[in-house]
Amino acid sequence: MLDIIRRHPLGFFLAVLMHLGIVALMIFGLDWLNPPEIQKPAGQVVQARLVDTAQLASEKKAKQLKKQQQLEEKKKIEQQRREAERKKQLEIKRQKEQEKKKKEQKKKQEAQKKKKEEQRKKAEAEKKRKLALKKKEEEKKKKQELERKKKLEQEKRKEEARKKAEAKKKAEARKKAEEKKKAEEKRKKEAEAERKRKAEAKRIAEQKAREAELQAQWAAEKDGRERASVTAAIKRKVQNSWLRPPTVAGKDLQATVRVRLNDRGSVLLVQVLKSSGNSAFDRSVVAAVNKADPLPMPKSPTLLSEFREFTFIFRPTK
After folding, report:
1. Residue 49 CA from chain centroid, whole number
2. Are strands 309-314 and 267-274 parallel, antiparallel or unpaired?
3. Under 8 Å between Cβ of 266 and 312
4. What are 318's strand-pairing partners?
5. In Å, how far are 97, 116, 229 from 104, measured between CA atoms?
6. How many C-beta atoms surround the C-beta of residue 50 within 10 A?
7. Which band of pLDDT confidence, cut at 50, 70 and 90, is reported for residue 35?
8. Which of 56, 173, 221, 233 could in theory staple to 296 by disulfide, Cβ–Cβ 3.0 to 4.6 A?
9. What predicted TM-score, i.e. pTM, was given to this entire model?
């Protein structure tokens, strides 16, 4: 209710005045309809004072305005309190973040300290490892010396065994040489067969190339015949659509025109490239091309793009 009064004070004031007027009308109107009989006063006459309803309404409005101002003042104080609380919360948050940052910094320093300690321990362990490795190397050298002496004795026995094995190896080498000779002969035969296979493949490829060339030549000749046929058909259709202007009767004229078509042969553009010297004849040629729409189009996909835009000389035969 208070919110409605704050948003619409004038409307509220007018509504109050209207209700007061209705109440006054109801009270005083009944007396007007049934006027009381005039009686003589029995006792002392009391002087009555008429209360001004407008003044009452004004005072009521003043009280309402005062109450509204008090509410607004209270609201303002509440907003200030909320703002102070928000700032306090922000300050608490900032302090918490600083404490958190200090803890993280401390944690980071402790981690670095721990890392340095681990590196120190690792360095000590590495030093011990190197000392152990050095000791192991010395023991290894002693062991290798013993093994070297033992190996010399073994090599002496092996030399005797080697001489025996060498004789056996020579026999095996002769056998391998014979096997290698046979393998070389086999390889030559296989190479000759591969050479013949490649020659045959080359012959077949050349034959296919010749056939493809003939096919391309045949297609070009076919396209040439279709090109000539479509061009003649276009000229015939334009000729059949042409109407001779009266001003060019008996004159031998010709004009070069450029025509642009879509894939279905519909005329998109007609332009005179080389005039006949007679504007009426030139206009009649343009009109004939437009009247002949759509123009014949080739079936060959390779010729479609060629006939999308082409140039021809129009010379009437009648």
Report:
1. 87
2. unpaired
3. no
4. none
5. 10, 18, 90
6. 5
7. low
8. 233
9. 0.35
